[in-house]
Design a protein that fits this description.
The chain has about 210 residues and is an alpha/beta fold. Helix content is about 35%, strand content about 15%. Strands 1-3-2-4-5-6 form a six-stranded mixed sheet. Strand 2, helix 1 and strand 3 form a beta-alpha-beta unit. Helix 2 crosses helix 3 and helix 3 packs across helix 8. The longest helix is centred in the middle third of the chain and has 15 residues. It is globular.
């Protein structure tokens, strides 16, 4: 299918177009593809001629209009880039992890994996607020509630003022995640004000050092 303009940045030589393992990198809120350039290059060098690494630009400069819209844009990139019979992996940072989960939910709804013959391989998130950002404290929660629509749909989603994150744990979304052979969530134990450990790691209590 035809590739939409401005959706991605390729890492490596054109010969990698024939690689059978597509790895999609997705940046976070207010992020850019350049932020993931070093990671993409490191993956290519570590697995020469085995991976086709695509850094998504689908949501560059468009990270404030909600998790679902960002997920739809990322899903469109995947539809265009995944070759029939290939393996598919995601490595997503921060909000990009929620975009990836939303994209997978959209793809699962249309039975895309079966139709495209694509195999889900690895799903990795780094500092993704899977449980929202309500751990930031009462003052900031009150501020987000008070400003409401002025802060953008994405912040409302992350503040659990909408159903966006709830939809990411419905049967369709979980079925999509279950396809991946390996699933891994990384988080920071400290020095991350917005994405606290419980949200990033999907745990009830902060892990001991």
């Amino acid at each position: 299918s035809r590739r939409p303009a401005g959706l991605l940045r390729m890492i490596g030589e054109s010969a990698l177009l024939m690689c059978q393992h597509l790895v999609v990198l997705s940046h976070g809120i207010c992020g850019t593809a350049e932020e993931l350039g070093h990671m993409g290059e490191a993956l290519r060098k570590a697995h020469p001629n085995r991976l086709r690494v695509v850094i998504s630009e689908a949501n560059t400069s468009r990270t404030l209009d909600g998790v679902e819209r960002g997920g739809q844009r990322l899903a469109e990139l995947v539809r265009c880039e995944a070759e029939r019979g290939c393996d598919l992996s995601f490595i997503s940072h921060s909000l990009g992890g929620l975009y990836a989960r939303s994209a997978l939910r959209a793809l699962e709804k249309e039975s895309w994996f079966e139709k495209a013959g694509v195999r889900a391989a690895n799903f990795v998130t780094t500092a993704t607020p899977h449980l929202g950002i309500l751990e930031v404290g009462a003052f900031w929660r009150w501020g987000m509630w008070f400003l409401d629509g002025a802060v953008g749909e994405t912040v409302r989603d992350l503040s659990l003022c909408t159903s966006a994150l709830t939809e990411l744990v419905d049967d369709t979304a979980l079925r999509a995640l279950a396809r991946f052979r390996r699933r891994c969530a990384y988080g920071n134990l400290d020095d991350d004000f917005w994405v606290r450990p419980c949200s990033a790691l999907l745990v009830d209590d902060v892990p001991a050092d």
